[in-house]
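Entry:
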Amino acid sequence: MTTGAHDDYWGPITTRAHQDWAPIPISQIDCGLNFAENHAKILENDGLQLVKEMAGDVTNMMKFKVEAVKRIMNVAEEASLDKEYQQEEEVEYYNAKRLNKFYPADSARKGELLDGYKKLTLLENTHFDGIPVNENFSSVHVPTNVYDKAPDVINAIRWSGRLDRTFKSNYELDPTLSWQYFGSSTGFLRQYPASEWVMDEKDPDLYDARLRSWYIEAANSPKDMVILLDVSGEIDDGLRGIAKHVVLNILETLNENDFVNVFNFSLKTVELVPVLRHIGQSSSYQGCSVCIRVVFVYANLENLGEFKKALNFGETKDIANFTQALTQAFELLQRSNSKYNKSGQGSQCNQAIMVVTDGAPYNYEEIFEKYNWPHLQVRMFTYLIGREENKVRYLNWMACANKGYFVHVTTLAEVREQVLKYIPVMARPMVMYQSNHPHRWTGVYADIADPKQTEWLWEVRERKRQMDRTKLWRKLKTLVNNKDTGHFHPRHLDDPVELEKYLKYGKFGLSNLDIARIKAERARSIRTDYRRIYHKGKWTLMIGRRGAPGLREGYRLMTSVSVPVFDRKKTSNITERILLNESVWVMRKREVRTANLLGVAGTDVPIREIEKLVPPYKLGVNGYSFMVNRNGYVLYHPDLRPVHEEANAEVLRKSRDKRKWFQDILKPNYNSVDFAEVELTDNEAGPRANNSDLLALTMWRDYNSKLRRELIEQRDVEAMHAVKIHLDGMKRVVQREQWYYTQMIGGTPFSLGIALPESYGKYKVHGQIELTREIQDPRTNKEIMDHFASGNWTLHPDWVYCEYKYDQNRVFQSPEDLMKDFLSRAQKPHWKWRSTRTRPPPEPTMNQAQYNTWKPVVEDDRSENYYCDKDLVQSLLFDARATNVYENKGDVEDLIEGKNPVAIYITLLYSQVQYNFGMTTAFVATRSGLTRWLDLTQANPGEENAHNIHSDEPHFMKIHNRAIDEVWYKRAVDYYEEDSKAYVYSVPFDAATRDPEDVLVTATRAIFIEENTYRRAPAAVVGVTIKHSKFVEYFKNETYKCPSYPSRDSSCKTAKTCESTSLDCYLLDDNGFIIASEREEDTGKFFGTLEGTIIESLVSSGVYKRIRIFDYQAVCLDSQVRSSMASILHTPIQMMRWAANWIMGNIFWLMVKTQLYTLLDPNAAWSYTHSERETQYPNFNEPPSPPPEHPEYKEANSDHQRNETEDGVEEEDILAEYSDVLDAIYYDVDGVHPDDQMPPDYEGPYIEEDGDFPSISTTEIPELTTTTEIPIEMARINKTHPRPCDKEVYLYKLQNENLLQNGEYKPLKAKLSNCHTNGCGRPFSVQKVISTNLILVAVNNLCPCESRKVDIEPVEVDYNETMHCNRLLLQHFRKRPEKCINYHPEEHEITLCGGAGALSVPSLALATLLLLAHTFNTQRLRS
């Protein structure tokens, strides 16, 4: 490439684009004067003091939660000492799964409660996410695998009923309390307030409190665990599944504080996960020698997922070498035990070996004597698989001799209950100390029924994809058989690409642009449904015991605090079976020493409650807060993205009241996102190589004593670091230096941090209206609401200005209505702010008099219990007065005469500019969350939603009402540093897929208050929306003119403009996206997808900077290989056999109604749920194996000219050309569930296996002619499974300084030399558009240069073995929980160490039904 070159192809490009032509002629107005005239001040932001105050508030709130759960714990322990339960005693309680269900209207018992159900009044409560609750009672959830009539279960339900008074008292004392609960070791959950457990008839109830992190972390101290799975030839086929599910359930009981490894053993003992085995046994890989010593991995979701995927039995062979397996396990644990080794690996607390086998030949006493006696540092838990009683002896001895527990697992139904028995055994030392009740804080997690819910939702999505494609295949087959050429052309059947498009979208002849528009419209309609239902207050998504309303807010992120509840009795009477002479069992009662864990008490702390105490308005625009725990995982962070939006996941089901239910899918590792994965350092290092002061690495791959380590160690930090921040769905990037301030949260493992931009973040605008003084001042002669009287306005929907502490009976109010309510109250006598949100809890040393003084007064009228943020409300009033210029015409003219700059801005826009430039809305958003706008399309500018009066879509400003959190606000403030007079323009990324008349250009400009060059702070952002069609019209008018137009002198005759057919002109923003061009289909695309070679040249010329961004929270989709379908097509007898097995399996399954289908083989699980789908495609329920991956189709474009179809639409690669467009859309499959009734004219949904979704490539579609049938292979989908991965993308940022010459912007001219075989070149010119973030790029198109496409689609980082090792085994610095209780000197007195499993009659029936269901479905699949 050469710069400044000219030749015959070129000639000077002369346009007016580089002048100040941007269609906002009033950009010189200093709108900030209006804030200054109202006496706004600039104050310094003391970040360290600010974070201390915020951390203090959070600490006080957290202390209240701890005190609440300790009160629950005390009452529970006292209640458990009540009189013994008598079996004839009737226990009254509210079963959460049996509430308020009545016989239908056509029943003889119409209106009566169903048998076993109770009636309970439930009222919607916004504090509990709008869920109907009853604050007078608690409700009980009993898992499916727990028999609720068992004596120990019903007895615990009985005495735990006393907790209701404590629950209510806690809530009265602390109205910010969320759900309170007691999880019993017998399996049930008692929660307050009472609510209905929402389930669908066909959905599994997977919830078991004992598998939740809040239960396990409180019940046990951290542990290192080795799981030994016997895969010898002695394990028969019937026992493999049971053994596998024992291991799966053990893994489910682990949490992020635990460490684990799994080994298969037969003749040899090998690691289960191949990469761990390979790295662990070899040091030949450069840089991975240290991996030899890393033998345990964190038990986070990602690592546990690796074990689960690898947990598939291969061929069993050889005999079980217990000696090698046990020796290797003990040596492994000794290396990680601080008693023997100071390596720092592992939990350095509890240690356990879990042996899963069908029997041991003897007890291997010599191994235990060598490695574990006399200290008994390692506990042994043994699981005997199978029904043979004569194999009990040695495994039972191993457990009893090593402080462990032995269980005999005979059926799948009892796996979970038997596995969970190890938890109270490991809790024994803690129980025996009695007085020590350590409280535990969990990491962040989503409030869903069960972690396996994610896997189940993914299966639902995959089945839906298969069903919809099958419907389209059937329809196509029918059209071909009927020769219905009215719907297709015969040539379409000879074109595999056209057939594939039909099976994806239901239509023939679609261009790539058509496909992009279809997908974008479907996505927008889904989002519209979300907004419409949410804004009407009629939709709440519920999963399990709780839920949350709103767009993409189906999950509530939270942390929980919990404490263990101990049985204060030291002995218990037990009835046990005694084996006599290895053949006779007898029952015997005796009193034994025990240390029983009764359960765990806890309460949730929603992350949003923490964020309320760290209000964003105090941090300002582009400032943010975050929290990190002692493992380095974030609780919340603006870049934490827990939901896999790309998965277009859904629960496509219609409930009985015909409301749609939507659901996103959580990422596999959503709750183990490290601080190093969300703070991207500004350097050129490769992936996961954060060699900076922010996240520096040591040779041992631990983060050194920099910011991350200081956060974990809960130190006070004040430091500045350079980072890269991505915006707008990872389409834009900003490089910025930020100040970081951190502070510990007392009594918790958390640290709070805030980040402020280095330049404008150091100062803040201070301007308030003292509400009381304003009301009492007789000179004002105005009502407070007069400041809001004109124009349209909204408030930030997520900020808390004022709120009622108890609002269960209040009608839903928008933030604006709520503010009006409080402002009207503020003008009445005896108004109090009540602005103190938190205070320290009572000290234990308080006497009664001091406590009575401290105790809050609970008003009888709950409307008097409210909170108002005084600073925020008074800042809002100030901003409202400063922006209150939306008056009638006469008043505005008066303001103009008074030189009110905001009034001048609005008036000029409304009076003349809109008619010339298509402006539709003028708006201003402020630091206090206030957004005001004027509709310029109506005679009455104050008329709300005037431009969209016939549309269900909310007004643009009602959608984009988050003020400083909006992307256009952030970009305007950041760009102010580069050009203080510039407007920042943007268009939607999917603009090319919309109706051109609906596309709006947004132009924004930041308002700063300045005292001098250094003391300045952003106060607001002003902007307009412009019809894109008018904007393009103006763009053409200006770029088609000669500068001396209309005189057309001699220089104009030789000049070239964008009107020339030899030039392609583009208006690009500062990130390389096309704002305007001569073709509307280019709008919103990344320029590199059209002119990749040119964008690379612009990078070489310094016009754009190429910035590498890593996404460490990405998800990749792997294809799952399926078995061939030929087996079900052989004979009618096999089809009949398949159908019979399916019917019998589903009959038994409906009788069981259990959740264990997710623990079965995934292929069997595929067939268990949503039985009605088989009626949709019975011949191919099990889709065939997917085709191998195939490179994306790229259309040749050697002459760089766009080939058009008959319709004039470009036929380019949709994935490359529209990747930036479609990535910005929230994908959702708009299809029909098998349970739905399809209309007669249903033509099938439009489905696309997009992005990471594999699709059938053209080379693998069978050759077709019009006489052949459409093969069944075309009906299949590629079944996929999500996998955590790292991705990278290169983003672009305009470098304005490189276009400056002597203080002025000058055109940059360059040429792509010798880019074609004929030796021609391709000149292009770049010109800066003054006072904007835009550049004009004019490209000569006469030379047919080859141009490759450059997109900004993230791609997976290709790790070698070394890097994969680092990713899986990377041991970040972490701080272990402070208390480790793993020893009590009297524990040897407890002799209970397990025995053979004994099923009750109900459990036996359940097991039998489950076994039959599994058998029939397995036979069907094998057939």
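The radius of gyration is 34 Å.
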